[in-house]
Design goal:
single chain, 261 residues, alpha/beta, Rossmann fold, 7 strands
């Protein structure tokens, strides 16, 4: 299944199967606004905007926000949250790695755990530079997966790998955003903006897998996936003691901020 269809298919369940919450997004927005010295005219762009989890607070506060995403269904979910499309929000269905936008048009470009998804990351970062206004900020951010949840997913990946006959995925490319911008004279600052506790029962996490809410769930055939999931559920009963067991650990939101010196 293509990435396009994958995101279209999970759009309705995307927010509930992730660990970013609206309250955390509000706190992150406070930090970003202070970091970039925002004023009422500050403009924001998020390539790979998805359902708008990261920039929804900025839209609600009246800032000019443009979001690009390859999935129309994800963009529709964003609009649904706002019960329409306010004047200060522009949503574009397009490949986020090729920004269909004029140069020097945004004060802030934000990406959240998306640079690894583009086919040519240096070209994409060149596009980020192109659309930034002089003195603008590029914020490369990510939500760090809670360790207990990551462990759960690693256990499932092992079951999925046992019986799959699909080709292995291409090894991930090495990406060094800091070196890229450092060589161009940008200064960089790193900060952990927020830490918060994430809790789910084993049953909930199995339900997320059953709904195929993550990319790893689409890398094998339906038959292979169902076989692995059934075996994994049996494993979970033994390993966690009960499907009602709650597993908790800390997530965090981190940002690397780049600005031309």
């Amino acid at each position: 299944m293509s990435q396009f269809n994958y995101y279209d298919n999970i759009a309705a369940i995307y927010d509930q199967t992730r660990w970013m919450s609206e309250s955390v997004a509000e706190e992150v927005a406070d930090y970003i606004l202070a970091l970039v010295h925002a004023n009422p005219d500050t403009s924001f762009l998020e390539p790979g905007v998805g359902t708008g989890l990261n920039v929804l607070p900025l839209v609600k506060r009246g800032y000019s926000v443009t979001g690009i995403d390859i999935s129309q269904e994800m963009l529709n979910q964003f609009r649904n949250k706002l019960k329409g499309n306010p004047e200060n929000l522009t949503l574009i269905q397009a490949d986020a790695s090729q920004l269909p936008l004029p140069g020097a048009s945004f004060d802030v470009v934000l990406t959240v755990h998306m640079v690894h998804t583009v086919s040519h990351w240096q070209k994409f970062l060149g596009e980020v530079e192109r659309v930034l206004k002089p003195g603008g900020f590029y914020l490369n951010a990510q939500w760090i997966t809670p360790p207990a949840r990551m462990e759960f997913e690693h256990y499932f990946k092992a079951f999925l790998a046992k019986g799959t006959h699909t080709p292995s995925s291409t090894p991930s490319q090495e990406i060094n955003v800091e070196d890229y911008f450092g060589q161009k004279g940008y200064r960089a600052n790193y900060a952990v903006v927020k830490k918060w506790l994430v809790s789910n029962t084993v049953e909930e996490l199995l339900g997320f897998l059953q709904a195929r809410a993550y990319g790893l769930c689409w890398r094998s055939s339906d038959k292979e996936f169902e076989r692995a999931l059934n075996k994994f559920e049996t494993f979970c009963l033994g390993h966690y003691g009960s499907l009602k067991t709650e597993i908790s650990s800390e997530a965090q939101f981190e940002i690397w901020a780049y600005q031309l010196s």
